[in-house]
Design a protein that fits this description.
Helices cover 19% and strands 34% of the residues. By secondary structure, the protein is an alpha/beta fold. Strands 1, 4, 5, 6, 7, 8, 10, 11 and 12 form a 9-stranded mixed β-sheet that branches.
């Protein structure tokens, strides 16, 4: 399992249920990495998608503690154990955790790679991602050159978890 996330200088990822900023090249990178794969996300993250619909071209697994929650075109799970059981069906596929904050926090120890877009700015935020530069098992293994979108500078990073937990 892997994850993909965009963070600011403070490792913030969102504010009031929304992304901090939308950068077209980052969205293109997200599509390229996740297309034809499995994505795991929370109910609130899904609600932030266009029309609140699952992502096309990917198998969507939505995590919600609400036992009555249903989503057309996606599988819904209600616990980490149920999620891990569901993921066994996809053992030959790449799986990407795509948010939000509590889903990242729950699944981070199980992820092998983290694809992180770092935005060189500090936004007003209420949701954060753990700072991988300060976590013991995470190592930066790839770093892009500087990219810009108008006045926003950003970088693509790839981290590796040297000791991921087994599902």
């Amino acid at each position: 399992m892997n994850l993909i996330v965009a963070v600011d200088n403070n490792w913030a990822i969102g504010n009031k249920g929304n992304l901090l900023v939308s950068i077209p090249e980052d969205m293109k990178f997200f599509r390229k990495v996740t297309m034809d794969n499995v994505v795991v996300l929370g109910r609130k993250t899904l609600a932030g998608f266009p029309n609140g619909l699952p992502l096309k071209g990917r198998d969507n697994i939505i995590f919600s503690r609400n036992l009555g929650y249903k989503v057309d075109g996606a599988d819904v799970v209600h616990s980490k154990e149920e999620l891990f059981e569901k993921l066994k069906e996809y053992k030959d596929r790449d799986i990407y955790v795509i948010g939000g904050g509590s889903i990242y926090e729950m699944l981070l120890p199980y992820c092998k790679y983290a694809y992180v877009t770092k935005i060189d700015y500090a936004y007003e935020a209420d949701t954060y991602f753990p700072n991988l530069d300060k976590l013991e098992n995470w190592e930066l293994i790839e770093e892009s050159d500087e990219n810009t979108y108008f006045s926003i500078e950003y970088y693509f990073y790839k981290y590796e978890n040297t000791n991921p937990l087994k599902i």
